[in-house]
Design brief:
Elements lengths: L4 E3 L8 H16 L7 E4 L1 H10 L6 H16 L2 E2 L5 E2 L1 E7 L9 E5 L5 H9 L2 H20 L3 H15 L9 H19 L7 H15 L3 H10 L7 E7 L10 E8 L6 E9 L4 H4 L6 E2 H7 L1 H18 L3 E8 L2 E9 L4 H13 L5 H6 L3 H7 L3 E2 L9 E2 L1 E4 L2 E7 L2 H6 L4 E5 L7 H6 L2 E4 L7 H9 L2 E4 L5 E2 L3 E4 L2 E4 L3 E5 L4 E4 L4 E2 L2 H6 L9 H16 L3 E5 L3 H9 L5 E5 L9 H9 L3 H25 L4 E5 L12 H13 L5 H13 L11 H6 L3 H18 L5 E6 L5 H16 L8 E6 L2 H5 L1 H4 L5 E4 L1 H9 L6 H11 L13 H18 L4 E4 L7 H9 L4 E4 L4 H13 L9
Parallel strand pairs: 3-4, 16-17, 17-18, 18-19, 26-27, 26-33, 27-28, 28-29, 29-30, 30-31, 31-32, 32-33
Antiparallel strand pairs: 1-2, 2-7, 5-6, 5-7, 8-9, 8-11, 9-10, 11-12, 13-25, 14-24, 15-19, 16-23, 20-21, 21-22, 23-24
Helix pairs in contact: 4-5, 5-7, 6-7, 11-12, 13-15, 13-20, 15-35, 20-35, 21-23, 22-23, 23-27, 24-25, 27-28, 34-35
The structure holds phosphoenolpyruvate and magnesium ion.
């Protein structure tokens, strides 16, 4: 029989799939002997059963009752006891944290009778009625869907009637009346009384948490964060402890290191005389932990010692939620904390430096996506105007956009927008996803806006208190910023500027470029340590796609171990276009040869420069790939020019001859037409000229004392015969040039037929390089130039794929072609070198796949080389335990 309920004494931190992150960590803290209120976790299995059938599974009721008895026995207090009631909190907690997305209900067990018992036992009537009104509010909203505004309106009316500014100032009588008003609202909306039976409250709450897995906002969050939709959530039922029990009580959140920068030293927010959710929601302004040290030194000292224990146990940054009830500290939650990309690098390197984790583990604590984020530009503030305001730098980055004030406007906008809110709540999620950045006037680094923005890697400044945020404008002093005005927000400094600011490259990029030293900068030393370690463990080499000496030099600075794709077609553009035109217009061999002869020295110089920049490293030069019409004016343009000339009674001359040629080579589907190897076979002398230029460049470099290592790559091969023909011609050309180092000749694999016949092709190829751009185009039958803009957005919504297959390799389809080709190729040629040079070579998820598929290298744009290096190292180290620190 399934077991659906685990006491906190029974679990541990490894059981996250079953108990959810929160439940597993509560169990771990209980095992560590930390002060956790007694409780139990209802498993994700139970949730999945509920989601399947719509009912709580058989046997669950009895298990819950048994565990409830245990809590009651431990505390000497019973649920529903009118004299001394046990109260419970019910909280969701899935495998991956979804901040604010799901439900929490506190104070379960209160009703018209037990509220009096609580008042007597606690000696605090006000507190008892305040707790009761919170229960009706949370329960009404979560279980019966009573709109939150209805309760807010009653609360505001109560404050007004009492003539007070804050809820905390409402007296007992006012709160008692508020409870009655809430109950009326509840009845009016739900059509029944607020349930008085504590057990009914408990089971309805558990059911509501399970059901909240599928709320619209939860589904949206999961899609955004790539969290599988079928995991379900666990439910944690815990004895209540009260942070709203007077000034000697309070509630807070804390991090064992700064989650924004990774700096050592605890960081946290504390809210005296308040209950759990008040802090995370950013509703009232909090004080720092230093202030707590002043107010309650004993609890503060205890908290610090617990945080140290947690870091040692989890060997990572932990975030915690705690409550102090009458001077006694309770731990309500811990988890490996979310952090910014910069903090992820700094913390991983620090922990490795401290010997708490190995460098391999440190590598698994960061991602290529985070490194990519750190390579984003930041604002150049040299000539910036004075900031409008300074808030809390909650999630780094530089974002400019027009100001919008609600989620719907952000989601509907076409250009970049900054979502400005007093504070955010989970209903703002669509707007936060759509916005370039988020700015709030309330809340700290742990407010909803901050936590969610960090998770998304989105720029966020929060708690900019000088902002008076209205419905369609905000005011700072005398300045009014209205909807549609442009502002810039800096998530690293917290500054908010009017207008759009210029941006400058990131420090990480400048360090790669050799413009900044790493010494003394924790982030740069961390990036250095982790990318360096990645290089030592990686099995995949990382090459760059570069076709100029400047790009090649940058690629080297970024750590590329060679050029995996030098596209030669750019060398035919600009002033050289005329030579290509002559080649295309050539009517006889002689004319063609003369055009090629003029191109030869130009190509030779191009290759010489690239080989010099990459001296000692492989440079894979791909013979020309695109169809020839790309080098000529468009058919429409020429037709127009010729028609105009004729209308004026003039001879169209050169244009006329060009038009005839363009018409001759015009294709309906040029990407499937005369391009790549086909062009080489159909235009005599073209490939031979390029091969000769490579050979002469290599010979010249070698003669000059260099170490040129060119390779020649043939594009778009579908049949081994094509490759054999080109190879024969190339070998002949190479052998005719003196002083040429050995040059390998390989092929791209970018046509499905080539992948499937790789066993036939391999004997004629010294290497394979997967052109996954074309391979994706041809495997899916998607035009790579058209479809992404046309319908991929809709395809993602429809769930055909989560990310574009042109961005992340489609493992099941295109990936299978890659695996097949590697397998078939190596079965006839075991030492066959295989790489990838499509865009996927720089995509973090795809790099992992290429490692698994046994490739030798990936090649990507120079800027993505560091990301690919890091991911290649991570892939080699293996998956390790998944840490939910995104
Ligand atoms: C490819 O098809 O993946 C490739 C690298 O070639 P190109 O993008 O130049 O077609
Ligand atoms: Mg291609």
């Amino acid at each position: 029989m399934s077991r659906y309920v685990f006491d906190f004494n029974d679990g541990n931190k490894e059981l996250q799939d079953l108990l959810g992150g929160k439940g597993a960590n509560l169990a771990e803290m209980t095992r560590m002997g930390l002060p956790v209120p007694p409780g139990f976790t209802v498993t994700t299995d139970a949730c999945r059963a509920y989601l399947r059938t719509g009912a709580l599974p058989d046997g669950l009721f009895q298990e819950v009752e048994d565990h409830l008895r245990l809590i009651e026995a431990r505390l000497g207090r019973r649920l529903g006891d009118s004299a001394d009631p046990l109260l419970l909190s019910v909280r969701s907690g899935g495998r991956f944290s979804m901040p604010g997305m799901m439900e929490t209900i506190l104070d379960i067990g209160l009703n018209d009778t037990t509220v009096l018992g609580l008042a007597r036992r606690s000696g605090d009537e006000r507190f008892a009625w305040d707790s009761y009104r919170r229960l009706i509010q949370m329960f009404g909203k979560t279980v019966f869907g009573v709109p939150g505004e209805q309760f807010d309106a009653e609360l505001a009316a109560a404050r007004e009637a009492a003539g007070v500014a804050t809820d905390a100032e409402l007296g007992t009588a006012a709160l008692r009346e508020l409870v009655a008003a809430y109950q009326k609202r509840f009845f009016a909306y739900a059509g029944r009384d607020f349930p008085q039976a504590p057990h009914e409250q408990l089971y309805s709450a558990i059911t509501a948490v399970f059901a909240s897995w599928n709320t619209e906002r939860a589904v949206l969050y999961r899609r955004q964060e790539h969290i599988p939709g079928d995991l379900g959530t666990a439910v944690n039922v815990m004895a209540m402890v009260f942070g709203n029990h007077g000034t000697n009580s309070g509630t807070g959140v804390a991090f064992t290191r700064d989650p924004a920068t990774g700096r050592r030293g605890v960081y946290g927010d504390y809210l005296p005389n308040a209950q759990g959710e008040d802090v995370v929601a950013g509703i009232r302004n909090t004080v720092g932990l230093d202030e707590l040290a002043r107010m309650d030194p004993a609890s503060h000292a205890r908290l610090l010692s617990i945080m140290e224990k947690l870091e040692l146990r989890y060997r990572d940054l932990c975030d915690i939620e705690f409550t102090i009830e009458d001077g006694k500290l309770w731990m309500l939650q811990t988890r490996v904390g979310k952090r910014t990309p910069a903090a992820a690098f700094v913390i991983a390197a620090q922990l490795a430096g401290e010997g708490l984790i190995t460098d391999d583990e440190a590598l698994l604590r960061v991602t290529g996506g985070q490194l990519a984020h750190l390579m984003f530009p930041a604002f150049d503030t040299t000539n910036a105007p004075a900031p409008l305001a300074i808030g809390v730098p909650a999630s780094p980055g530089a974002a400019s956009g027009t100001v919008v004030f609600d989620s719907a406007a952000a989601a509907a906008a076409t250009g970049p927008v900054i979502l400005v809110r007093h504070e955010t709540n989970p209903d703002d999620l669509p707007g936060m996803i759509a916005a370039q950045g988020i700015l709030t006037s309330r809340g700290g680094k742990t407010s909803h806006a901050a936590v969610v923005a960090r998770g998304m890697g989105k720029t966020c400044v929060c708690g900019a208190e000088d902002l008076e945020v209205g419905p369609s404008s905000f005011r700072v002093g005398d300045t009014v910023v209205s909807e549609g005005d442009v502002i810039s927000i800096d998530g690293t400094t917290g500054r908010v500027y009017p207008g759009e600011l210029p941006v400058r490259p990131s420090a990480v990029v400048r360090w790669f470029e050799g413009e900044l030293p790493s010494t003394g900068d924790p982030l740069l030393t961390a990036v250095e340590r982790l990318t360096g370690h990645a290089d030592t463990v990686a099995k995949l080499a990382v090459h760059a796609n570069a076709d100029t000496a400047a790009d090649a030099e940058r690629a080297r600075r970024f750590g590329a171990a060679g050029i995996g794709l030098c596209r030669t077609e750019h060398m035919f553009l600009g002033e050289r276009r005329e030579l290509v035109e002559r080649l295309i217009l050539a009517t006889g061999d002689e004319e063609r040869q003369s055009a090629l002869a003029e191109l030869l020295p130009l190509q030779r110089d191009d290759f010489t420069a690239v080989l010099a920049a990459m001296d000692g490293l492989p440079v894979t030069i791909r013979l020309i790939d695109p169809p020839l019409h790309e080098f000529l004016p468009s058919l429409e343009e020429l037709t127009d020019r010729v028609a105009r000339a004729q209308a004026r009674g003039e001879d169209p001359g050169h244009d006329g001859r060009l038009l005839v040629a363009v018409r001759r080579i015009h294709e309906q589907n040029p990407m499937l037409g005369l391009r790549g190897v086909r062009l080489g076979l159909m235009v005599p002398g073209l490939f031979a000229m390029q091969v000769r230029a490579v050979a002469q460049a290599a010979a010249a470099r070698a003669a000059a004392g260099g170490d040129p290592r060119p390779e020649i790559m043939v594009p778009l091969v579908a049949s081994v015969r094509e490759l054999e023909l080109v190879r024969a011609e190339a070998s002949q050309v190479l052998s005719a040039v003196e002083g040429v180092p050995p040059i390998r000749i390989g092929t791209m694999i970018e046509v499905p037929r080539a992948a499937l016949t790789a066993g036939e092709i391999a004997p004629a190829a010294d290497f394979f390089s997967f052109g996954t751009n074309d391979l994706t185009q041809m495997a899916w039958g998607f035009s790579r130039d058209d479809v992404e803009g046309a319908f991929f957005g809709r395809y993602r919504e429809l769930g055909v794929f989560a990310t574009s297959p042109f961005e992340t390799i489609d493992v099941a389809g295109v990936g299978e072609l890659v695996r097949t080709a590697v397998h078939r190729g190596r079965s006839v040629r075991p030492d066959l070198v295989a790489g990838v040079c499509g865009e996927h070579g720089g995509d973090p998820d795809s790099v992992r796949f290429f490692h698994d598929a046994g490739l030798n290298y990936v090649s990507c744009s120079p800027f993505r080389v560091p990301v690919a290096r890091l991911e290649a190292g991570r892939a080699a180290v293996g998956d390790g335990p998944v840490s939910d620190s995104r």
